Amino acid sequence: MNVPPAVLLVLGVAACGAALALAGFAWAAATGQLDPSNAGALTIFDDGDDTPRQGARR
Amino acid sequence: MTSITKELETVEFRERLDAESAIPVLVFLASGVLWLLVGSALGIIASIKLHAPDWLATIPQLTFGRVRPAHLDVVAYGWASLAGVGCLIWLTSRLCKTPIRQRGALIASAALWNLGVLYGTGAVLFGYSQGVEWLEYPLPAAAIIAVAFLLFAWSILSTFHARQAEHLYVSLWYVIASVVWFPILFVVANLPIYSGVEHAAVNWWYGHNALAIWFTPIGLALAYYMIPKVIGRPIYSYYLSLLGFWSFALFYNWNGIHHLVGGPVPTWLQTISIIASVLMVIPVMAVAVNHHMTTIGHFKLLRTSPTLRFTVFGAMCYTAVSFQGSAEALRNTQEVVHFTHYTVGHAHLGVYAFLSMILFGSMYYIIPRVTAWDWPRPGAIRLHFWLAALGISLYFLALTIGGWLQGMAMNNPAEPFVNVVAGTRGWLILRSIGGSMMGLGHLVFAFLFFEMLWRAGPRRGASPWEDAK
Questions:
Q1: Class of residue B158 by CB neighbours under 10 A (exposed 0-12, middle 13-18, buried 19+)
Q2: pTM
Q3: Quick one: pLDDT at residue B339?
Q4: Which of A34, B135, B197, B226 is deepest in the core (most CB within 10 A)?
């Protein structure tokens, strides 16, 4: 079957992208980033920019 | 160290992060706002031409075939990308708890990006277009934008590499993914090696993915930060947000070929794309449930927080546009809506009602923090919101209803085509009214933005402790 080179290129890029995504997922799992607890959700609240202020326009 | 001293140090550190990102953030945001005004003017001209085709018809640069792609490119590569980059720079610094790296590269990136958009848009208006939707810019302009993007990605990845935060908040997943994905997509799609049907497939692989892996991650990253931050309540289910991210990464980039359903591309390719489009229900549900359940019980804050008002509106429209997209990909729906104004309404629900509204909301949050000044004229902010929200609602409803009726009429062989065209006129006039309302809102926003740069508003309290004095 004669597959055009451009199709091979796009398929190659897609395959590399999928491999990259899988590597990212494996890294995330290995480094504990996929912790099922809700603790990660709290990490944006430790910068002192979340003290509710009366009438503040946020 | 007392807890108050520690908290003050935390506040000082956060303010230092904001201050160090201020110049690149403001350069990108100001560029975005200027392109928003240009894009709005081009959009309104293109819209009016659809129901008054003789208007400005003697000026070649302002004929519909040039103004319409110029509008699309300016809002995509000028407004949405530049404003999005400005917001992502600030967000990355905050989430990595690290001063933004490579600030010089960011300024060079902003200069090149503006040059690329100016060159590309000028070329399109003067007739030098590549003639491929979303990829109209000539190759040199696209190359300039690609270099600008790589400089931006270098800064983001350097900051990420030097991060002091242990945990990667879900917004950061979207940011990092998009800065890795988009340059690959943009460069591969612009390679001058495609022809015929193959080019059409690559075209829509790119066109849809520009939304999927560049604009959508920007919007979701900002919404996942802004909604819980303003409400002061963590996201409802963090685990669900991670499920949403990974299913998004798995399914979204297969969607593009649904633009060619019924066209001369292999049926299996169309079917895969339709299946992936329907599977997008999974990440969309994850995001929708999370945003809704986080906001529920706090809707009264929409009255006082412009950030929340714009962002929640955008998040709700993300749910709407995604479900609509899944339904629109089905063959039965395509039989009616293909080649109609319905698709244009859908595109605006995505890029405007979802992304642009979240960008506006995020800018209302970010700019006071990087300038240390607060917004003037709360009334004008409300006016901006209502002009934008009512404008896009009218625009979307007119094109959705009008486009559907147009598709039904086109499928009727007994209906003369000229009658179908004439039947759309009323809906197209409503579209122009909606678009003009949005354009007016942008003028209000641009006025407010540049007033902020001139420090027309009140000085922002340096910290909550100062506010209490």
A1: middle
A2: 0.93
A3: 93
A4: B226
